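Before relying on records like the one below, remember that each one covers exactly one chain. Contacts with other chains, cofactors or solvent are not represented anywhere in the record.
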Amino acid sequence: MRKIILGIILLFFAISGYGQLITKQVKLDSLVTVSLPSTYQKKDTAGEQIYTANSMYGYEIVFRQTNEKNNTPLKKEKDLKKVLKDYIKGIQAQADGGVALNVRDTTIGRLEAKTFTLKSDDGSGNIQYRNFVLVYTQEATYTFEYVYPGDRIEVVKDEYKGFLASIKLSPELQRNDQYLSNNNGMSSIAKIAIFGGGGLVIILVVVLVVKRKKKLAVS
């Protein structure tokens, strides 16, 4: 009898683990999809959808937050960078003692995105990592999060890469869905050429004026 019970328990865990390996393509909306374990849970709140799931080595969380209807369109790339920077600050502020690591720019589809890792310590030496990818559009903000304990840092790499690779954006999403203008102002080379050239013109004018004065003084 005990062998039968033990066999049933082992079978249960095997089925449970296998179920977590099965992923399902989830539509966050008509433009964005991501693969999650088939056992994922979904929660709808006012203007926000939250998807959560246990993977083999970590915990996956996806947020889709609808932006305000009167949200002012971002004008330039620098405005987008500021918005994403403020998001990171907000996330870090919510984690007591959390530190944002490896903050860098990336691209998802044709859109610019931000990725970073939030490291936190509960005070007793238990380290937790939360890998984030932030994608902002005029209509909605998407947050993809992968959570895992510090002792799994070496084993989660492939699973996390698969999670990131599963994020798919519709070709309809273009850079102008993030900010209106691709003109980031004058390039550094152009500034050097213009202002440097302007400086040479001023020097040349001064030299000519001085020479003219000398000629007039001699005559």
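Strands lie at 23-27, 32-37, 41-45, 48-54, 59-66, 99-108, 111-121, 127-136, 140-149, 168-169.
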